[in-house]
Each structure stands twice: as structure tokens, then as C-alpha cells.
């Protein structure tokens, strides 16, 4: 099964949060800075637990941080 890419707004949320660094976010979530970098770049999909922790740091719902691209949503809705 092909891996579905997940987009995220972490970089934008960090910028809006007084330009929070990747290291600051990593510390608050309990992962390494390299993990945050990989998630931001779409090279790594976080566990559900980490995804919820990231959303909680910014005080937003999970779907405001992570999403499937719109084209994929349209395809799934047709099934």
C-alpha cells in the first residue's frame, strides 16, 4: 500500500508562536529537534501521541496541524 503524504502547518504555527524554535517545540513535546525537523519536512509521520502533543502545545485541534492534501480527500470521498 502506498504511503499517503500528510501535510502539516508546524513551521507556520511555530512562527506565529513568537517564532518558537524546533528545539523548544521538541522539548515541550518530548522528542528530539531532528524529529521535529523530519515531521515538518514530511519525511516522517509522527505517532498519534506525538501529533496530539504538538497540537496541544499550540492550543489547536489536531486537524489544524496535520491534514491530507485536498486531492486525496476528494478521492476518498468518491469511494
How would you describe this structure to a colleague?
This protein has 79 residues and is mainly α. The protein has one domain: 434 Repressor (Amino-terminal Domain). It has five helices and two strands. It has helices at 10-16, 22-29, 33-40, 48-58, 70-78, and strands at 7-8, 66-67. A two-stranded antiparallel ribbon has the order 1-2. Helix 2 crosses helix 3. The protein is globular.
Record keyword descriptors for this entry:
434 Repressor (Amino-terminal Domain); 79 residues; single chain; globular; mainly alpha; 5% strand
* Strand order, sheet with most strands: 1-2
Question: How far from one another are the termini?
Answer: 16 Å
User: CATH homologous superfamily name?
Assistant: lambda repressor-like DNA-binding domains
DSSP helical segment count? 5
Instruction: Provide the helix percentage.
Output: 40-55%
CATH second-level architecture: Orthogonal Bundle
Amino acid at each position: 500500500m502506498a504511503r499517503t503524504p500528510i501535510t502539516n502547518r508546524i513551521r507556520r504555527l511555530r512562527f506565529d508562536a513568537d517564532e518558537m524554535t524546533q528545539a523548544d517545540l521538541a522539548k515541550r513535546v518530548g522528542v528530539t529537534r531532528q524529529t521535529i525537523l523530519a515531521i515538518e519536512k514530511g519525511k516522517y509521520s509522527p505517532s498519534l501521541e506525538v501529533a496530539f502533543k504538538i497540537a496541544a502545545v499550540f492550543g489547536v485541534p489536531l486537524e489544524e496541524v496535520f491534514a491530507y492534501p485536498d486531492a486525496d480527500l476528494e478521492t476518498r470521498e468518491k469511494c
